[in-house]
């Protein structure tokens, strides 16, 4: 099972910097980096909601599932 985090893609589409996103969401650069790099074990719904609001997107635009079988 592979969960892919596409925050970089959405940041590029919205022409937004990582710093700007951290300020809008209210999380640290370190925590956003952990999430962005796929190292996070979990994400709070409130954080996901804030990211979606800041990037004007849906959770499915940020989080993707890819089967290992493919």
Automatic annotation (TrEMBL):
Secretion signal span: none
Cross-referenced Gene3D superfamilies: lambda repressor-like DNA-binding domains
Domain HTH cro/C1-type: 13-62
One Pfam family from the record: HTH_26
GO molecular function, a single term: DNA binding
UniProt name for this protein: Transcriptional regulator, XRE family
Originating organism: Pseudobacteroides cellulosolvens ATCC 35603 = DSM 2933
